[in-house]
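Example protein as discussed:

>
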Amino acid sequence: MDEFFKSHISNSVFWSAIGHGERINVIQSCEKIIGEFGYILEFKQFSDLGLSLHIDVQSDKIKALYDSLKQALRLDNFDFKEINDKTSTVYLNISFADGHGDLKVEIPEVPG
C-alpha cells in the first residue's frame, strides 16, 4: 500500500492558492492559463469558499504553469525538485478570500 501511495505522489504535485477579487474572474483567469499548458480533468466547487482542480499537464510545462498561475493567484511556494519526467498531474486547491459560504446559484425558470 505504501508503494502505491509513493508512486502516486511522485507523479503528482499539490498546490494551494488564494484567489483575491471576484470569484468568477479568478476562475476564468485560471481556466485560460491552464488551457495554455494542459487540461482540467476535474473541477469541484465548494460554495464560494473554494474549489479544487485536477489538472493534466506535461512535466516539462509544470514550472511555466506555476509561474503563470502565480500572476493570477497567491500560490504557496513549491519545490520543483518534486517534479520528475513522469509527473503529469497537478492538484490545485484555491480558496477565495472574499468567500462567505453562501453561494447562490440561480436556476433559470423553464416555461411549461
Remarks:
- The chain has three helices and five strands.
- Residues 10-96 form one domain.
- Confidence is low (pLDDT under 50) at residues 1-7.
- Strands lie at 12-19, 38-46, 50-57, 74-75, 89-96.
